[in-house]
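Sequence only, no structure available. Ideas?
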Amino acid sequence: MANVSLAADRYETYAYRIFDGIYRLGAFLLPIGVLVILWEASVRFGIADGTILPAPSTVVARGIGLAFGGEGGGVLFSHIATSLYRALAAFGLAILVAIPLGFALGLSQTLFLWVSPLISILLPLPAVAWTPVMLVAFGQGDATIITVCFLGAVFPVLYSTIQGVRSVSRESIWVVRSMGASRFDIFLRVLLPASLPTLMSGLKLGMAHSWRTLVAAEMLAALSLGLGYMIFAARSYMDVATMFVGIVCLAVIGMLIEHGIFGPIEKRTIRKWHGSSKMGGDA
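Reply:
I predicted one. Tokens follow.
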């Protein structure tokens, strides 16, 4: 009987999680669905000009044509794959540079005083402003695009890492050190968990900056592929539907990256270590 009761409890817990997940997904998608319906209706009833703002059904049909149709079957996937490669490569480089440097600046007051004026100058600069410079240095192609996206991602990650490390109280480090902890133990058990909420916000911002910067960089520096290149090339032919396919792909992929990559990481780290109260409740 005990085994049967335990199995029933597990089944109820599993079923509750499934229904709770479906409810959360529905609540998340509901505003998007309402927006799409209003968008479609405004075009169908002539409230919006379909030549400038094509209906969602037209955008979907055009996207299917670009992805599977004979006019360029698979080209949409090539654009998406190329853009993802560039953005993720830039973001990976930003992580490799910004996180170690951020911990070093956060732990060393002297180093922070020397470098912080440079960060204050460079942080407000739009990364896109570097595109002409990189075009002169590297020419058109991936090197320019990845470098510009790297500049867009590195400063939010660096700044958030510094702030996260500097927010850790010295007393916490002293207590752990007095118990015989090594520097690695202090990093793993004190600095990393305590600074992770701020660091995660910086990672999200850095990825978002890299993804947004990508579009402008591809418009100026891409040779043949990329969502930004696709949108800009469609302008020459007044192909507004293709432009919106690119815009929708950028929005959907950005949302999937945030909720599909950063969401699970937050659940396994920040919400587990700090509780939901520090992460905006159950949102």
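The longest helix spans residues 2-44.
Hope that gets you unstuck.
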